[in-house]
Amino acid sequence: MNRALDLSYLRGKPVPVMGLGLSGLATAQALQASGVEVWAWDDSPESVAKARAAGAHVVDLTIADLSQCEILVLSPGIPHSFPEPHPIVLRAREAGLKLVGDVELLARAAPQARKVGITGTNGKSTTTALIGHVLQKAGIEVAIGGNLGIPVLTFPTLSANGVYVLEMSSYQLELLDTLVFDVGVHLNVTPDHLDRHGGMPGYVAAKARMFVGQKAGQTAIVGVDDLYSADMARNLGKQKLVRLSVKHAEPDGITVVDGIIVENGRRVADVSDIPTLPGAHNWQNAGAAYAACRALGIDEATVLAHMRSFPGLPHRQQLVATINGVRYVNDSKATNADAAAKALGCYEQIRWIAGGRPKIGGLTGLDRYMPRVAKAYLIGEAQADFARWLEGRAQFSLCGHLERAVADAARDAQPGDVVLLAPACASFDQYRSFEVRGQHFMELVRALEAA
User: Fold this and answer.
1) 220: domain range?
2) Which stretches make up the Mur ligase central domain (predicted)?
3) DSSP 8-state assignment for residue 2
């Protein structure tokens, strides 16, 4: 039977936990279960009440004496630098506390287990899940989570043969201290979260923390198809570097062009027909997962066999239903233009549902996909701006909400069309998360199917 993580090494001084969302509440509960005195706090009275009801010890960190503490466990969603530090962060720094995240606590509690980290602007969730799937099927003891949505302090204690497979956001990477990844994967960089990092250089620097501390015998897998990531690869240290491209040949790395994985110039496999991994962006994910599993010692045939049984992830180009010859695809995770481009590039005749809370850049870079769009159905705060951008590029209608967008797209669609939810926006204008938005889309489609 797997043992819960032992965080008792933190006993002796109070441990403040700031931010009581999913991971923060799990952190407070895991610390208390190990006999650690926890001071749990959140800006939201509702979150504080929920934590108190769940048994967390609540202390107001706006007035608490933080000089008694050594660390502040900070939710990755709380700013500590840009656009300005949270007031609790300022209090913690004045008291000399080190800022850490829950992933750092996991690393200290289970130093014996191997750690695989996956980051990148796009594709990290699929790559994380794919690596975890292959390892599980190969009989390896695995725990999979992090930014993927599973709090890491709910993980069991793994042995030296076990592997923690961790999706890492830029926010989480900034909160690492001692953790060094045995295998680090960086897929790509496009502009995102720039307000939290003070611009593109800060964002890239946060992503590059994936490889801090790696030495000979550890592996860095770097997608080199954008200039920022290529530069990142050039500046690594003594770890083994595996360069990964879906655009050009990498003689001493991994190339996946037209779905063909080529390793060090040798053809390995064709993954273009794996239904849960469509398109060049998923071929990059497949190449990265292949390289990571091989770096962990899994033989080639085993890796390739289990990649084919990958079930895919919810809200990532998820085929919900085919109704009267029309496919309905949920890619609610496409929260920026670059992610939406990956989905738009996979289909030919698209009824595109887009919009929500816009991100910097809007729909910039999507011009070449517009011939594929039969019509766009716009929702949310971005619909007026998106309409202006689409003028002269593609037909569109202003739908406001997802219910009307799905209904109108279903009415207009012809056999062979794809009704694609790829919003190119955050969800927070109408939904609390992209998952809730995607779930609503699926419910609307299933209602069509049942009609």
Assistant:
1) 108-307
2) 118-292
3) P
Instruction: Show binding-site residues.
Output: 120-126
Per the residue annotation, which of 80, 115, 133, 147 is the catalytic one? Answer: 147
On whether the CB atoms of residues 408 and 417 are closer than 8 A, the answer is no
Residues 291 and 325 in one domain: no
Q: Is 147 a catalytic residue?
A: yes
Per annotation, catalytic residue among 50, 57, 137, 193? 193
Contact between 127 and 176 (Cβ < 8 Å)? no
Full DSSP string of 9-33: GGTTS-EEEE--SHHHHHHHHHHHH
Query: Does residue 2 have an active-site annotation?
Result: no
Which of 100, 122, 146 corresponds to the end of one domain?
100
How many residues make up the chain in this entry? 451
Phi-psi map region of 418: left, alpha, beta (phi>0 left; psi -120 to 50 alpha): beta
pLDDT at 279: 87
From the DSSP assignment, how many helices (H) and strands (E) are in the chain?
15, 19
Q: What is the pLDDT of residue 338?
A: 87
Eight-state DSSP code of residue 97: P
Is residue 3 a part of any domain in this protein?
no
Q: Are 402 and 379 in contact, with CB atoms under 8 Å apart?
A: yes
Query: Is 193 tagged catalytic?
Result: yes
Please give, one letter per residue, the 3-state secondary structure of 146-188.
ECCCCCHHHCECCCCCCEEEEECCHHHHHCCCCCCCCEEEECC
Mark residue 161 as left, alpha or beta (left: phi above 0; alpha: psi -120 to 50; beta: remaining): alpha
H-assigned helices in 38-186 = 45-53, 87-94, 102-109, 124-137, 170-174
Same-domain pairing of 151 and 281: yes
Q: Any idea what the CATH number is for the domain that residue 114 is in?
A: 3.40.1190.10
Q: Which of 80, 115, 124, 333 is catalytic?
A: 124
114 in any annotated domain: yes
Residue at a domain's end among 307, 333, 359: 307
Residue 196's pLDDT is what? 80
Percent of the chain with pLDDT over 90: 91
Query: What residue ranges of the chain have pLDDT lower than 70?
Result: 1
CA distance 143 to 111: 14
Binding residue positions for ATP: 120-126
Task: Name the residue among 208, 202, 194, 190 with its Cα closest to residue 340.
Answer: 190
